[in-house]
Amino acid sequence: MLSNEAKRKLFGYNLAKYRSLKGYSQEYLAEKVECSRDHIAKIETAKRNISIELLFRISLALDTPEYMFFIFK
Asked: Which domains does the chain have, with CATH numbers?
């Protein structure tokens, strides 16, 4: 079983992956979801947790179902 820290890192990796697949910079995604670039960067590096509300906005902005961020393979 993965630790919470490992899950946060994998979540951040998935976020960065789907953001890159869309061709979005951290700054562009942050503008689309109305948060700071620093906040996105900290989520991607597991230094900050994500709120469910922000997850919904990011999912919509990236056109990626929420569950995809939680696939840890």
From this structure: 4-70 (1.10.260.40)
pLDDT at 23 over 90: yes
How far does CA 45 lie from the centroid of its chain? Answer: 9
- Token reading at 18: 């789907």
Three-state SS at 72: coil
Task: State the Cα angle at 60 between 22 and 54, rounded to 5°.
Answer: 105
- Region of 2 please: left (phi>0), alpha (psi -120 to 50) or beta: beta
Helix intervals (H) in 1-73: 4-22, 26-33, 37-44, 52-62
This prediction has a pTM of 0.95
Task: Determine contact, residues 58/29, Cβ cutoff 8 Å.
Answer: yes
